[in-house]
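Margin note: ligand = NAP.
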Amino acid sequence: MLKGKTVIVTGGSRGIGRAVCEAFAEAGANVALIYAGNEDAANAVVNTLREEGVRASAYRCPVQDYSAVDGTVTKIIEDFGGVDILVNNAGINRDKLLISMKEQDFDDVIAVDLKGAYNLMRRVSPVLVRKRSGKIINISSIAGLDGNAGQTNYSAAKAGLIGLTKSAAKELASRNICVNAIAPGFIETDMTVGLEEAAKAVPLGRMGRPEEVAALAVFLAGADYITGEVIRIDGGL
Ligand SMILES: NC(=O)c1ccc[n+]([C@@H]2O[C@H](COP(=O)([O-])OP(=O)(O)OC[C@H]3O[C@@H](n4cnc5c(N)ncnc54)[C@H](OP(=O)(O)O)[C@@H]3O)[C@@H](O)[C@H]2O)c1
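Resulting structure:
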């Protein structure tokens, strides 16, 4: 079903995004991955994807910068001949209690985790509208649903991403475009190093694996009658 489709994955150089790129490539999709600065990691992912026999390229682009996103998506469309699926996965955290959080910590997280997704959606949606088909998958977090002490900036961005998802789903449904969010719990990546103790609260007794989130993204990319949803993947938290 995904064979020959083109997917853009932001934050594809590491962690969940890397696993998403690999799962889409295994399903036969061509992959354009966006990363922030880790060129070696991005190139390593591209080499792995090409071993699956699909087309793959990496693009350095700060997702929070609309003009950079505009230029990058234009280049991707030139290189791949179009785009069918967008996975907004790039994200950062700057965890601090509210009483000691710096304004910059708040602004940076909103800029990357929320505005970054808007930037990609704003640029890619008209392309999908013209084709009357497409899938957009946004990686939110259970912090956006439940809140989490020490993460007011991150929770606000991830809750905002859910609002963005639900509203865009309503706007784009008449054009046969599905927009959904995934809300992971604790997943083993660079972002959760040091959180092994907190993960003991997970009813299933372990952290999630990036591949488990990736499988859900691939499922949503093939689901034509699910839109405006937020799916938790958190081991029962
Ligand atoms: N891990 C978890 O437990 C968990 C739970 C819930 C939600 N999430 C969400 O899942 C997503 C992926 O998380 P992760 O744990 O896989 O993170 P990660 O391992 O820290 O990887 C972050 C990825 O995002 C890219 N990135 C960061 N800032 C960027 C920017 N300004 N522009 C473009 N790309 C940027 C990074 O590129 P470079 O390699 O170039 O730095 C990297 O590829 C995030 O949105 C995160 O909030 C994670």
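The chain is about 45% helix and 15% strand.
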